[in-house]
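Predict structure. Input: Enoyl-CoA hydratase/isomerase family protein, 236 residues.
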Amino acid sequence: MIDVEVDADRSIRTVTLDRPAARNALTVDGLEALEQAIADADESVIVLRGRGPAFCAGADLEAVAALDGDREAAIEFARLGQRVASAIEASPAVVVAGIDGPARGGGLELALACDVRVGTPASTYGEPGVTFGLFGAWGGTVRLPQILGEGDALEFALTGRVVDAEEALRLGLISRIEDDPRTVALEIADNALDACAVLKRRIRDDGDRKTQERREARAFGDLVAAHADDVDAVLE
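Output follows.
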């Protein structure tokens, strides 16, 4: 259900959603396995991808139907998806979503939790839950307006429409279009990975401005102390 490959030389972990026959839709077991694969990572960069022609269709609708209208069970299922998305967002590693084919509902929401989203030309994006009386509840209503802005987020979610890679790039759902999203992961892995980790923490810092600036200065000081020889080498 979740396949993990490690490139130790480049410090990259590839986590693959591995249910191609179900467009990599996630059950409770799949979500828990994904959470564990992220938590177990010692690598500095994680690539999240799907096997086959889809990135992820989101929540497995059979699992949703099995909730049988139980409100409390539905809340618990939503909270599990939120927890997994938060684990991706909070991971010390830089997490790159490599999106090929459809990213729908919860699948898109997991991608929104990643630090970098890279789509192939064949990637498509949508929140179709409103077409059958639901909506994505794995943190999407929080992250979508942060990424798109409120107006575009509302239009995208309320219409349930599907956008292609070019429109996703224009909206800001993704930051790059690449035939092989791993290209971007390799670019990141070529850099000083401790500096990348610090940048992730600082950019995602939700403290007030003065607190953020204080933390930024301290982090810069730590890196200057750690990389003094590297800076000297650049000047030579």
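Residues 205-235 form one domain.
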